[in-house]
Amino acid sequence: MNVLWLFAHPDPHSLGGALRDEGLATLRGLGHDVRESDLYAMRWNPVVDKIATVPADVRAEQAKLTWADAVVFQFPLWWYGTPAMLKGWFDRVFVKGYAYDVRGEDGRTLRYGEGALAGKRALVVVTTGSPAPALGPRGVNGPLPDLLFGLQHGTLFYTGMSVLPPFAVYDADRLTACGYASAALALRDRLRDLGRTSPLPFRPQNGGDYGRDLVLRPEVAPGRSGLDVHLG
């Protein structure tokens, strides 16, 4: 596979940097072709400018995406979301006509399961200082799948990507050597299955579950609400 690794962490010597190095070495050892976008090392400009033409740095990132069969998005969970650098990457790279407002031959808008990035796999790798239970169903921080919903469903699946279950490392600022070894082993295992892991079963917009108002039909998940109703 062609794999793009998108890394958004300011410290290459951090836990995140060590896991990135483990991941890249694993993928290359498995024979995959790998490219990397290290946003802080690149001094990526996260600010959208009013420019008539697509800047060269954006075209280069779009070329990497077009080339890739799978994309790994790695970042620390900051204030319940991605670092601003990564958010700015999406703002500038996922532009109109490339990642959204794409229409099929029948005139339908292709989104939520369809679109320009359909057929590509996406894996979120996230580190967090929170212990796992605090990001669980009754944890004070809220469930991790809910915190990642905007990214995984509203950005990656929206553009057509097949989103794999995320890989999370908890207690990032208290991880022992044994804990790191366990996390690295688990990451290597996940990457070995990158092409085989079943994606999250998000419901496609045009698959029949939603009406013309883009609301789930009454017979779909009746009586339920919340973000997980969008999982089939």
Give a nutshell description of this structure.
This protein is α/β, with parallel strands linked by helices. The protein has helices at 15-29, 56-67, 84-93, 144-147, 149-157, 177-192, and strands spanning 2-7, 33-38, 70-76, 121-127, 162-163, 167-169.
Mind explaining what this structure looks like?
The protein is of the alpha/beta class and 232 residues long. The chain is 28% helix and 13% strand. It has 6 helices and 6 strands, in the order E-H-E-H-E-H-E-H-H-E-E-H. It has helices at 15-29, 56-67, 84-93, 144-147, 149-157, 177-192, and strands at 2-7, 33-38, 70-76, 121-127, 162-163, 167-169. Strands 1, 2, 3, 4, 5 and 6 form a 6-stranded parallel β-sheet that branches. Strand 1, helix 1 and strand 2 (33-38) form a beta-alpha-beta unit.
Task: Describe the secondary structure blueprint for this structure.
Layout (H helix, E strand, L loop, with lengths): L1 E6 L7 H15 L3 E6 L17 H12 L2 E7 L7 H10 L27 E7 L16 H4 L1 H9 L4 E2 L3 E3 L7 H16 L40
Helix pairs in contact: 1-6
Keywords: Oxidoreductase
EC number: 1.-.-.-
GO molecular function, one term: oxidoreductase activity
Helix content: 25-40%
Give the biggest beta sheet.
6 strands, parallel
What's the assembly state of these chains? single chain
Number of strands: 6
Which properties best describe this structure?
6 strands; 13% strand; globular; NAD(P)H_dehydrogenase_qn; Flavodoxin_fold; NAD(P)H-dependent oxidoreductase; Flavoprotein-like_sf; oxidoreductase activity
